[in-house]
Write a structure and sequence with these properties.
With 623 residues, the chain is an alpha/beta fold. It is built from 18 helices and 26 strands.
């Protein structure tokens, strides 16, 4: 149920914008520490404001620490280990030997929030904010890093106390100490104290009362309060810990935080872990493709990378020989007040022009109408035919009319991941393709249809599996969804994508599975009007596509050791200029003419070629 905070007045919003912290950069480490590949484990250590209360006291039956509900803001790939304990300070948590079990659990991250019980008057728990408290935080940070755990500092959440109508705080020295240690140790910091105090001021004393566990308790939270505070922490992550942004459930954040609050992190920015490029071939990152907003021109994009050129609509690079190597690349998005509202990082990998020279490489392209058009598969084949490249062979049972015999694939207009994984009606490889059964389904031992990649390879490629299977699906799976149905649509799509990926991993363990991220639609609503009338709008489809990208990054990112790869096709497509255009007359009384996009989701040949460039650059870097 959404919080009733949504009706709060719009005041103090500008001040609130600047208060969520911008911290250091960290990277996800997947699958190397005992838990499932692709899973992220976050440990929390702190005091009662963060702790969980499975059996709350009778006088505060709704008592909820923000760490208790923190997991609700993430997808199923994130596991929260809440080790916060009521009454603990940075000193007593260590003294009671509670720290080592946290490290033994091998989390990817540890969020550290102390301060309340470090204050004077807490007997042997008290610490001096300028000496012992800072030393304790440094100890946690350094020990975490030594254990390959990424620390994130959190300033102590504010108490809901007011004087003369303004929220007050006596935690200042501990807040400052946390910020200082974060700066000195180059640790991401979520300034929860500043954000929570700003929220209290926004709502006022009476308006924020429902956040407290009871009328007499202005330190601890009700469930509503715990959700609001956890929402503030989550909202800061796209800026402070951008690698976690892909796992956030943005609809939960929106429900937890007042709609009037426009905070850094509200803007959704997605960027794959790797951008591949090859000498002599243009690579791009189009800024509008990265963010979910009706008008990206309202923001400034800053790209930090040793290579490439920053232009108005894109970052671009056509590498030369001296550019070969791996480089960090960071994208920051700023609003009109020059505040960073989103940040993401990736690595740029530039491969030599002769990478893979002379190797034989067999490819199977699986997809919908974007693959059926055969333009990007043919472009990949053409690029490989030049000197200094691997010898490419495309396999598949489908060859649309008018394409060379060498261009084959399993790309069918209108098909979905669900159809490829389950549709057994009809005959594979025969008749009208819209009525065929999936080419990967064969009778199982029980006579029922089952995915069988070995049988497919026997029928299509003499029993030899391809070196690479690329899957380019998504548009038909989520085309008609709305904000109310998109999560279910994405879940259905990924569930069946998992079946296809699992089929290849089981039957061809040496084959790489390359998942092409779904590309954005044409930049113009005119294109959707031309294609689809009023059945769907560009903005809704763009929301659906962006959400699918976020979920695919979360589900399949970091799984290269399993031979599962993501290809950054969505960043290297010019959606403003490389969709088909029709010549139109602007005024029937004059000869003045112009161009208008007239296809919503199918690029022009130049757009398809950009997709082929992205696939080819990844192939050149394949080990």
């Amino acid at each position: 149920m959404p919080l009733r905070l949504l009706t709060c007045p719009r005041r103090a919003v500008v001040a609130f914008l600047a208060l969520l912290a911008i911290g250091g950069e960290v990277r996800l480490a997947q699958g190397a520490d005992g838990h499932r590949p692709g899973m992220v484990r976050i440990a929390l250590i702190g005091d009662s404001t963060m702790a969980s209360y499975p059996e709350p006291p009778a006088d505060r039956p709704d008592l909820t620490g923000w760490g208790q509900v923190f997991g609700e803001f993430f997808d199923s790939r994130v596991e929260i280990l809440n080790q916060a304990v009521s009454g603990r300070s940075s000193k007593s948590f260590l003294k009671e030997n509670r720290w080592k079990p946290v490290l033994d659990a091998k989390p990817d991250y540890v969020f550290i929030q102390f301060g309340h019980n470090d204050q004077p008057g807490k007997e042997d728990r008290t610490t001096d904010p300028e000496t012992e408290f800072r030393d304790n935080l440094r100890f946690y940070v350094r020990e975490a890093r030594a254990a390959q755990v990424k620390p994130v500092l959190v300033t102590p959440v504010g108490r809901r106390t007011f004087a003369d109508g303004k929220a007050t705080s006596n935690l200042g020295p501990y807040v400052s100490a946390t910020r200082i240690v974060a700066r000195e140790e180059h640790v991401p910091v979520v300034d929860l104290h500043a954000a929570s105090v700003a929220l209290y001021n926004l709502l006022g004393d009476a308006g924020s009362a429902e956040l407290s566990a009871s009328a007499d308790d202005r330190t601890h939270f009700s469930r509503r309060g715990g959700l609001a505070i956890a929402g503030l922490v989550s909202a800061a992550l796209p800026v402070t810990v951008p690698d976690l942004a892909r796992h956030l459930r943005h609809e939960v954040i929106s429900d937890a935080i007042p709609a009037a609050v426009d905070f850094p992190g509200r803007l959704r920015l997605s960027l794959p872990d790797t951008i591949d490029a090859v000498v002599g071939l243009e690579a791009n990152i189009y800024f509008d493709n990265l963010v979910l907003t009706t008008d990206s021109a309202n923001y400034a994009f800053d790209v930090h990378c040793p290579k490439g050129r920053h232009e108005e609509e894109r970052w671009t690079l056509t590498p030369v020989v001296g550019d070969v190597g791996v480089y960090p690349l960071v994208v920051e998005v700023r609003d009109d007040q020059n505040r960073v509202v989103a940040r993401a990082r990736t690595q740029l990998r530039v491969h030599p022009a002769d990478a893979g020279n002379g190797r034989d490489l067999t490819l199977l392209f699986v997809g919908d109408s974007l693959t059926h058009a055969s333009v990007y598969p043919r472009h990949v084949l053409d690029l490989g035919a030049k000197d200094g490249n691997p010898r490419l062979k495309l396999i598949g049972s489908h060859q649309p009319a008018g394409v060379p015999d060498t261009v084959r694939h399993e790309g069918y207009g209108g098909w979905t991941a669900l159809r490829f994984a389950t549709h057994a009606t009809g005959t594979p490889r025969e008749g009208e393709y819209a009525k065929r059964a999936s080419p990967f389904l064969y009778p199982g031992a029980d006579g029922k249809p089952a995915l069988d990649f070995k049988a497919y390879c026997r029928d299509v490629n003499g029993g030899t599996p391809p070196d690479v299977v690329s899957i380019f699906l998504g548009p038909n799976d989520i085309y008609g969804d709305t904000d109310e149905t998109i999560e279910g649509g994405v879940e259905r799509m990924l569930r069946h994508m998992d079946l296809l990926v699992g089929m290849v991993r089981r039957d061809a363990p040496e084959t790489d599975v390359a998942l092409l991220l779904p590309v954005p639609p044409a930049a113009s609503q005119d294109a959707f009007g031309s294609n689809y009338g009023t059945s769907q709008t560009r903005w809704q489809y763009r929301r659906n596509q962006h959400r699918l990208v976020e979920r695919m990054l979360a589900q399949y990112g970091g799984r290269e050791p399993e031979r599962i790869h993501l290809i950054a096709t969505e960043v290297n497509l010019d959606c403003r200029h490389n969709y088909p255009a029709a010549e139109v007359t602007w005024n029937a009384n004059t000869p003045l003419k112009g161009l208008r996009q007239n296809n919503g989701v199918h690029p022009a040949a130049t757009g398809y070629q950009q997709t082929g460039d992205t696939v080819f650059a990844w192939l050149k870097g394949r080990k």
